[in-house]
Structure prediction request, 361 residues.
Amino acid sequence: MAKRKRLEKKKRVVVRERNWEEQPEADFSHDLARHRRALAKLPEHSLYHHTLSDDFMSNATVVNHARKWAFVRCDDMGADASETQLCLIDESLQEGDETLLAPGDRVLVERDVDGNHVVRGVAERKTMLVRFAPRRRGVEKQVIAANVDALLIVAAAAQPPFRPGLIDRFLIAAQMGGVEPVLCVNKMDLVDREPEQLSLYRELGLTVCLTSCNIGQGINTLRDVLIAKTSVFAGHSGVGKSSILNALDTGLRVFTREISEATQRGKHATTAARLYELAGNIRVIDTPGIRTLGLWNVTPEEVALYFPDIAEHGVRCRFRNCTHVHEPGCAVLDAIESGSLAQARYASYRRIRENLESETK
Prediction:
């Protein structure tokens, strides 16, 4: 016969009240994960609430970051460029319409009561490379790199094929972010001559560097372009961005991968943007390869303004709001017909404009 369960009065659970005001740290475990979970429940005037003036002095540079953590190089670390500090990110810092942190950001780092390094503030960005990324957890404006002097647009002469479309998008992004663009065509050892479209970019006044990491072609020339600057490397996967870094500084040993023989597309070797300190006073932010670059805050009507050769002809169009697609009296279409404007540049303009138009529908 089954025993009858004893009916007992449930024991009352005594909950210990915590005095958050007078002893905010007394009831926290020193275990970091539990400590952060508890901090997330504190009121606004809690331990992590920190108000900074607009003119605070930054003391560190972001190397890379992920979620609530950041690796930074503090100004007082001395000459060792490989030394970084792992920091928490103050939970009072919130993302707005753009990502909170990016490699190259200048930040203020302080210690909390437990001795943890914490990023307390992010200084205003002087320049930036931005992409439109609406699928990135609700943030539409993704800052790829901050406070950079130059954007090195890396393309391959072959394997993968030379694609001017992405170059033209990066040129627009560089103008938007106040960054000087430089074009680097890598893997020149795989071709007999340079891509014919390069003459168009030289006519626009763009600095062009031809390189080959296998035979060392153009590496010293590129190094001279990058000295005393902070640059961001960007381009398709497989074009050799990481290989160029290794060629510029053999002590880096950045991981690289071969392209796919089946698709002739690059495989991702770099998975997150990271700031590197190279020998010879060169700072480079290496970024993951991308297949397309979404343009932030550019309307279809504004695209022609970022194509200097098209804008030059466009001032002579019959209509002020000419789209340079179908209107009568369009000076741009006349220039295409006469051969004074390159068909390849116009085709790139049309692709970008049509893509932006489809996004706004």
About this structure: The first helix runs from residue 32 to 39. The CA atoms of residues 101 and 194 lie 38 Å apart. The first strand starts at residue 60 and ends at 66.
